Amino acid sequence: xxxxxxxxxxxxxxxxxxxxxxxxxxxxxxxxxxxxxxxxxxxxxxxxxxxxxxxxxxxxxxxxxxxxxxxxxxxxxxxxxxxxxxxxxxxxxxxxxxxxxxxxxxxxxxxxxxxxxxxxxxxxxxxxxxxxxxxxxxxxxxxxxxxxxxxxxxxxxxxxxxxxxxxxxxxxxxxxxxxxxxxxxxxxxxxxxxxxxxxxxxxxxxxxxxxxxxxxxxxxxxxxxxxxxxxxxxxxxxxxxxxxxxxxxxxxxxxxxxxxxxxxxxxx
Length: 268
Description:
Mean pLDDT: 89
Shape: globular
Radius of gyration: 18 Å
Low-confidence stretches: 1-23
Number of strands: 10
Helix content: 40-55%
Strand content: 15-25%
Largest sheet: 7 strands, mixed
Structural class: alpha/beta
Distance between the termini: 54 Å
């Protein structure tokens, strides 16, 4: 791994090219624009793939990077971030149109990634460096915390505008993480949220200028390390089970065969 690549991929909006910054990093995974680095016990999974639309390639890369993070020894926390204008611009509609028979398999593979992130056995933080639409919002919601850059970027559920229903997996994840008012305005009215509105309604936890976004994500993730929480005894497996209990319906829907794809009428 070249040092210039490592410094470029860590920060969601700019390069870090100083020798001091390079010395603080440990490259753990790098493939086709997805990079995992470590800094002070905090893992940074950075998606540097343009609009980062969800298709089989991006899901596979996410899964591979996440697998390395899952196997990394404790204590650890995880930051998920993008690069440039977009965090994730949703499903790859062009791929969907060309591969209609492959859509169910794609969605199920993405739901499995969301499920793993949802119940990961450490603190997870999403740093929204830019636009997050559709699947990108659900990737963010799978994390424990979300912070967002100011001045540029929107969070949006596009299903209403596209005439699409929400799958059970996506719906249960949204219900697990958002208030009824956020669901009403975001999903049923299709509102686009800037950072301040997203904080106010509870979709994200805080907003920061892009220049400090990586620093704030690092800080928030580091605060969740067991030693910084001053825990007497931290057991990763128990922490994961705790998340499964808190998000049971979402986890079950995301991991069920077909992603819990049966229509809502079947649950009445």
